[in-house]
Amino acid sequence: MSKELQIVVPVYNEETSLKRLIDDWRNLLDNLSLDYQFLFIDDGSTDHSLDLLQTYRHDSPDILVYSQPNAGHGPAILNGYTHACQAHWVLQIDSDHQLTPNSFPEFWHGREDYDLILGNRKEKNASTSRRLISNTSRSLTRILFGGRSPNDVNCPYRLFRGPALVRALPLIPPDSFAPNVLLTAWFIRNHMRIRSIPVPGNDAIPIKKSELNGYFLRGSIRALWQTLLFRFRS
């Protein structure tokens, strides 16, 4: 039987944040009396992240763990969505626990009126170049797919209606650098019901500074190209 909520969490070298993330989210979800399950996708971590997750998995039926060779954040997310999309609702969060779980009740209580609810990160400790790339991605999505795109088209804090995600996933290339951007674009183009909700940072976790490095620059250029292709192929 499908779970009411599957939570997709891509993981790469986050051993220091995983215990707190699991504990904080479990406490919140249990208080909401939800039938949920975590799907952790370990993307070839080189620290003890996978060992920690396997320890949790042995004692916890609400945790599933999948491991893959390092392929990047995007393919890890898609791997998780593929396993989770039969659930009624699919939540994606990141394993660094940078965003507070406390915003989730607003997502959950308003879910029936929407097909996709996106977080809008209130605090971004990002360099100017990273902000420029984010703004470009938002503007390109708005130009290519019409309508008013959400402010944070790539936010890693998003709640999908499961059947809608099932429709969208086959159209997303498996090597996408930023599949969440393409999924947001698909929901916009298909006139799905979308809402954005502000999500503050987690006060217990220092906000990481997002810098532009060679890997991210190359990936961002690829993501922009993939967005252009997606517009004319989907």
Backbone structural class: alpha/beta
How many β-strand runs? 7
Residue-averaged pLDDT = 90
Low-confidence runs of at least 5 consecutive residues:
none
* Helix share, percent: 40-55%
Number of helices: 8
Beta-strand content:
15-25%
The topology string of helices and strands comes to EHEHEHEHEHEHHEH
Strand order of the largest sheet: 3-2-1-4-6-5-7
Largest sheet: 7 strands, mixed
Rounded to an integer, what's the Rg over CA atoms? 17 Å
In whole angstroms, how far apart are the ends?
31 Å
* Shape category: globular
Strand and helix layout:
Layout: E1 5-11, H1 15-31, E2 36-43, H2 49-59, E3 63-68, H3 73-84, E4 89-93, H4 104-109, E5 116-121, H5 128-145, E6 157-161, H6 162-168, H7 179-189, E7 194-199, H8 214-233
Parallel strand pairs: 1-2, 1-4, 2-3, 5-7
Antiparallel strand pairs: 4-6, 5-6
Please sum up the structure shown.
This protein has 234 residues and is α/β, with parallel strands linked by helices. It is built from eight helices and seven strands; from the N terminus they run βαβαβαβαβαβααβα.
